[in-house]
């Protein structure tokens, strides 16, 4: 309703001004340009097809690094902070109760490209990491829900999250979270990412909207 009231008020003002001022010369457009607008609401993406007793069940939907001036990168390597809310989580569910081997979550970043241009040498850096527990029995509850993520129990000492994850754009996959030894029954392990930045080498930024993908892979050692 508020939006309708604003539009109605503007239309009314236009009519009054035209009638009071008499005949007005029509404005001829002398040029036109455009400015992009953008807003994104993102949190975490669920696994659409979980199978068996060991699965990735949540990963971050987007790493958004914002909008910046090209000149920022002209004279020095530049670090860009992630703009969407932190922390973010990658969550693994392991329901196995029998003896089994190690599992590992790895991540790899594609190149960040805008048309034919790419950010050569760019790297995503993930720090301030921790092992947490995802508590809902219903796996459709998003990790950012109140109480969904809590401190991991002390018995999870066999689960580790890498403290400094460096994902080179277009580079090899890197270890994110690893579990060794026996499973915790219905364990839901969350790798917490408290700080995410994008490092771009000097003079690599050219005007454009650069996009890429981080691929998360769960590997099970039989």
Describe how the helices and strands are arranged:
Layout: H1 2-20, E1 44-46, E2 54-60, E3 78-81, E4 88-94, E5 103-109, E6 113-114, E7 117-118, E8 123-134, E9 149-151, E10 159-161, E11 165-168, E12 174-179, E13 187-200, E14 214-220
Antiparallel strand pairs: 1-2, 2-4, 3-13, 4-13, 5-12, 5-14, 6-7, 8-9, 8-11, 8-13, 10-12
Give a description of the structure.
The protein has 222 residues and is mainly β. The protein has a single domain, classed as Immunoglobulin-like (Sandwich), CATH 2.60.40. The protein has one helix and 14 strands. Strands 1, 2, 3, 4, 8, 9, 11 and 13 form an eight-stranded antiparallel β-sheet that branches. A four-stranded antiparallel β-sheet has the order 10-12-5-14, with no helix packed on it. The chain has a two-stranded antiparallel sheet with strand order 6-7. Strand 1 and strand 2 form a beta hairpin. The longest helix is centred in the N-terminal third of the chain and has 19 residues. The chain is elongated. The N terminus is likely disordered.
Shape: elongated
Number of helical elements: 1
Number of strands: 14
Gross CATH architecture? Sandwich
Indicate the mean pLDDT: 83
**In CATH terms, what is the fold-level topology?**
Immunoglobulin-like
Structural class based on helices, strands and sheet pairing? mainly beta
Distance N to C terminus: 60 Å
In total, the number of domains comes to 1
Largest sheet: 8 strands, antiparallel
Assigned CATH class: Mainly Beta
What is the C-alpha radius of gyration, as a whole number of Å? 25 Å
Report the helical percentage: under 10%
Order of helices and strands: HEEEEEEEEEEEEEE
Low-confidence stretches: 1-21
Q: State which percent range the strand residues make up.
A: 35-45%
